[in-house]
């Protein structure tokens, strides 16, 4: 499987975003906030973690940045930070690794070892 490692993202579980929005609404605070998975990784690292958690052995190789052209240009780094939420003491979004593990467990993907 070929996956790009030149694009850096903050993988975010929608359940975490929903919980974050409820927390923010309940707080009565207003303003501009980012709610993204804590941390960052390349798409290839994300794929590696999916296969590791699922207990699936697969060979991943690096795809070149132009190998999978998109209809719209994508930034090389699209990482968001929850700084405003942290400063307000409202950040409840988990690290992306924890969220990914929770998602895979929720849909019934388990390690096969």
Using the alpha-carbon principal axes, give the shape. flat
Strand content: 5-15%
Q: Helical proportion?
A: 25-40%
Low-confidence stretches: none
Distance between the termini: 22 Å
* Radius of gyration based on Cα positions: 16 Å
Number of domains: 1
H/E topology pattern: EEHEHEEHH
Mean pLDDT: 93
Helix tally equals 4
Strands across the major sheet, in which order? 3-2-5
Largest sheet: 3 strands, mixed
Give the strand tally.
5
Structural class: alpha/beta
Keywords:
113 residues, 4 helices, alpha/beta, 3-stranded mixed sheet, 5 strands, two-stranded parallel sheet, flat
Walk me through the structure:
The protein is of the alpha/beta class. It has one domain (2-106). It contains four helices and five strands; from the N terminus they run ββαβαββαα. It has a three-stranded mixed β-sheet with strand order 3-2-5. Helix 2 (43-54) packs across helix 4. It is flat, with a radius of gyration of 16 Å. The two termini are 22 Å apart. The model has no long low-confidence stretch (mean pLDDT 93).
Summarize the structure.
With 113 residues, the chain is an alpha/beta fold.
